[in-house]
Design goal:
This protein is of the alpha/beta class. It is 45% helix and 13% strand. It has one domain: NAD(P)-binding Rossmann-like Domain (Rossmann fold, 3-Layer(aba) Sandwich), CATH 3.40.50.720. The longest helix is centred in the middle third of the chain and has 25 residues, at 109-133.
Length: 249
């Protein structure tokens, strides 16, 4: 066995958007669960390397790999790198996404196109490679959002992209019949990440946090626990959208 290869018994996870927020927390949680982890990032190499360093310091195996999730050549190379380093891929957590908020009438079409490219095309491209390459017993975990069922003003474009993610998730689960690969989506509620907090004042954050019966925002750790479940023991959960939102909807 070369020094670049881990034991075959260790499962391997690719986490897109793994340098920050929910993606990073998920990458670190999966490493704690015993996975070797590929931390994908779009542009912030410093944050991605910090995530890798945290995993390695805790005794895990990880490396960072840059790739635009909407670029099919780059994503194929991401999977190539995972297979070369770790021998294969078992779990894909597709946490990469972008969000721009505005009423539909005021939404900039360039912003719409950017969300479409990252959130819809990106999910399609990542899932396509995952469906082609995951080993038996694998799991694909996409990200939707609980905002999809809240119908909040200002979220029309973003929610539309997440509706597409849910459709792809449910259909792909059925298309992979006979492969022993589960496909699910996690739909977080309001979660204390930079993506969520950006542009909101303290009053707005407190008002949103109070909506949940648990009377707080979610944390990346809350969501990572769901990811850990779907990546590991949840073999009978398939073709589902798990709304991890503290009861807000």
């Amino acid at each position: 066995m070369s020094e670049r290869t881990v034991p075959a018994s260790r499962r391997v996870a690719v986490v897109t958007g793994g340098s920050r927020g929910i993606g990073r927390e998920s990458a670190e949680r999966l490493a704690t669960d015993g996975f070797s982890v590929v931390v994908n990032y779009a542009g912030n190499r410093t944050e991605a390397e910090a995530a890798v360093a945290a995993i390695v310091a805790a005794g895990g195996e990880a490396f960072a790999h840059q790739a635009d999730v909407a670029d099919e050549v780059a994503i194929a190379a991401l999977f190539d790198a995972a297979e070369e380093r770790f021998g294969g891929v078992d779990v894909v957590v597709h946490a990469a996404g972008v969000m721009t908020l505005a009423p539909l009438v005021d939404t900039d079409l360039d912003a719409l196109d950017r969300m479409h490219r990252t959130n819809i095309r990106g999910t399609f491209v990542v899932d396509q490679q995952a469906a082609r390459r995951l080993r038996e017993g694998g799991a694909i975990i996409n990200f939707s959002s609980s905002v999809l069922s809240l119908s909040l003003p200002g979220y029309s474009a973003y929610a539309a992209t997440k509706g597409a993610v849910e459709a792809m998730t449910l259909i792909l689960a059925r298309e992979l019949r006979g492969r022993d690969i589960t496909v699910n989506a996690v739909a977080p509620g309001p979660t204390a990440t930079d993506l969520f907090l950006k542009g909101k004042d303290e009053e707005a954050v407190e008002r949103i946090a109070a909506q949940a019966p648990l009377e707080r925002l979610g944390t990346p750790k809350d969501i990572a626990e769901v990811i850990s479940f779907l990546a590991g023991p949840a073999r009978w959960v398939n073709g589902q959208v798990v709304r991890a939102n503290g009861g807000i909807v």
